[in-house]
């Protein structure tokens, strides 16, 4: 029997599937629009990465432009900047939410403007589902009139002052990849402010066909539309969203109870009441001096017991592929990477598996 425990398996009950209907994509988009607010227009696409790429296209980002991006994230936040031939400028995190630091964001923008080049867009992230300092970041984007792209790939169900993550930026991005809170086995969504933007995104996502009886192209297009089969899965999955959300949050509580009285271990949680995280992945920070062991010791112990855990995202400014990119910040994201660990958080974890995790961790304590 396979007794391995994985970091983030999503649960996909085979209910409410309507795979053979043609209108699955439109119906899935309607459900998403209902969820995010009727004033939003949502385009279902084949991945979160393509949603980010489309948002850059719509922001008019092209060759040689600068795009500011959170450094502490998964590479998919930044890669589409390169697809467009633009230059990423990476920003460190702040310690409350682990997301983009507004202070360094403004510093970077001022620096670029001084050099005669205002950034074309800002990509910020709600990492591990934790809402970023949205108000501060939005104010800066407004002040300098820069397009704001909200990478909410990991933050479906998270809210900031009660408003859903993904609805704050000029564009919001959701991922339905296999390991995310809600999966369609690969997929994503682009949340637009209005129908016009959605129509433009639709145009680029379906090979940029001009209006003509033949195939006529005056721009480069992409094949980014979501498949109808996957949209059918998405329709069924939407009814489980709240269930998954409360389960992931209960897993976070479970880790808080395990580590409650342990010195030197901090379970990542909301720093105040305006933040509500889906706790897509539960993460800890281990202070080796206080705890007497490092996050790597926990990882190895879990591995020995067939339980998957993973280091936090390695910041983009430390990645070999981005070593030439400009960076504004200190060492907050670097230290998070050095001391942190993501623990199993999937929505199909059983009571028995949680018990195994608890026993394994307690061997170290
Ligand atoms: C998963 C993820 C993406 C990309 O989504 P895909 O659907 O896998 O392309 C982008 N940004 C972040 C922060 C992610 O975690």
UniProtKB/TrEMBL annotation:
It holds the Pfam family DegT_DnrJ_EryC1. GO terms for biological process: polysaccharide biosynthetic process. InterPro entries: DegT/StrS_aminotransferase, PyrdxlP-dep_Trfase, PyrdxlP-dep_Trfase_major, PyrdxlP-dep_Trfase_small. The modification N6-(pyridoxal phosphate)lysine is found at residue 180. The active site is at 180 (proton acceptor). Transmembrane segments: none annotated. GO terms for molecular function: pyridoxal phosphate binding; transaminase activity. Keywords: Aminotransferase, Pyridoxal phosphate, Transferase. Belongs to the DegT/DnrJ/EryC1 family. This is Aminotransferase class I/II-fold pyridoxal phosphate-dependent enzyme.
